[in-house]
């Protein structure tokens, strides 16, 4: 049912909507994911490391669906989590604790305790102040804490301001000026073991330049931190985390593949004599984004002067990225008509009572189709969805070998009414 175009992106074949919906008894809007494509992305990325020890820690926030998590875990992929709930999900889906890193700037004591109890590979320390908190929790529980320092490299990545995380004004990571303070805090924390250092400069990176610069900056920082630990009788470090952020092609082009970033990492570590280290990357979007689509039905057309609007039943409550980031997703008719059929520009909008519920202008058949496909919606779609305006969350369908293998039915609008009307 789910096929791929010349670029390997997930597309739905003609008539597939009716087949999928009839077989699964669901209505639009609905997300559809290609598990085979997702696994293939992970396998290709891992191959980019060659003989370098590595951990691909999938960023759960990109798409937290259980079928996706289990498929990735079965292929040797770990998890990058940012909440206690994501940690529990990763463990429940078969991710081994030694393949989990826990990021986030405001971990609660309860979340720290759970991570320590699970014996995950590392808590990613995002501030000097966090070290004493982790030390206190580890001491109280009578355990040792494994941590990695997340460094803010001060690099302004070429991406949207909302998803750039490695610049000086970002809330993430320890500034380079504070690395010495972090090392001193670690040396005063007898229950805390430093296992590595890392960084993450931002998301949707479509070139290697910023990533390469950040990697080259991180390697000497690693050496400095490890030397301080060894001089104080602490163990050698075991990992270096280069973060994720690998971009995909939303239509404007993306000349690099995830494995290109892995090859950059491996080359830098080889050059520095660090081929023994566990290289960690934290991809999210690049594994799932291109292999998911959002199906929506067309409700009606509206004309206002020269402008033509196309109202669909999917809105910003289902896919927030266009409203939040001004992202433009390709929208295409579900059923492909004749190549020479007339087309017109339509402003595609959703039903939500906000002017930002706008998917942009798209060239579509005229008259318009009965249903459309919003492409490249596998990342930051359902995970950022809401029930705003009392609209139910979308159902998710998962395909493998061309067949529906799982259906996750979300809470319906009637359930929202019952919950909000409860006394």
Give the SSE map.
Elements: E1 2-4, E2 10-12, H1 16-24, E3 30-34, H2 35-47, E4 54-59, H3 66-73, E5 78-81, H4 84-92, E6 100-102, H5 109-118, E7 122-125, H6 128-141, E8 145-152, E9 174-175, H7 179-187, E10 192-198, H8 209-231, E11 239-241, H9 258-271, E12 278-281, H10 285-288, E13 292-304, E14 307-312, H11 321-325, E15 331-333, E16 343-349, E17 358-365, E18 371-374, E19 395-400, E20 403-408, H12 413-421
Parallel strand pairs: 3-19, 4-5, 4-12, 5-6, 6-7, 7-8, 8-9, 8-10, 10-11, 11-12, 14-16
Antiparallel strand pairs: 1-2, 3-13, 13-14, 13-18, 15-18, 16-17, 19-20
Helix pairs in contact: 2-3, 2-9, 5-6, 6-7, 8-9
Number of helical segments?
12
Runs with pLDDT <50, length 5+?
157-167
Shape: elongated
Radius of gyration: 23 Å
- Strand percentage, roughly? 15-25%
Q: If classified by CATH, what would the architecture of the largest domain be?
A: Alpha-Beta Barrel
Give the integer mean of the pLDDT values: 91
Helix content: 25-40%
The computed structural class is alpha/beta
| DSSP strand count | 20
Tell me the span between the first and last alpha carbons: 45 Å
CATH homologous superfamily placement of the largest domain = Alanine racemase
- Report the sheet with the most strands, covering strand number, pairing sense and barrel closure: 9 strands, mixed
CATH fold-level name of the largest domain:
TIM Barrel
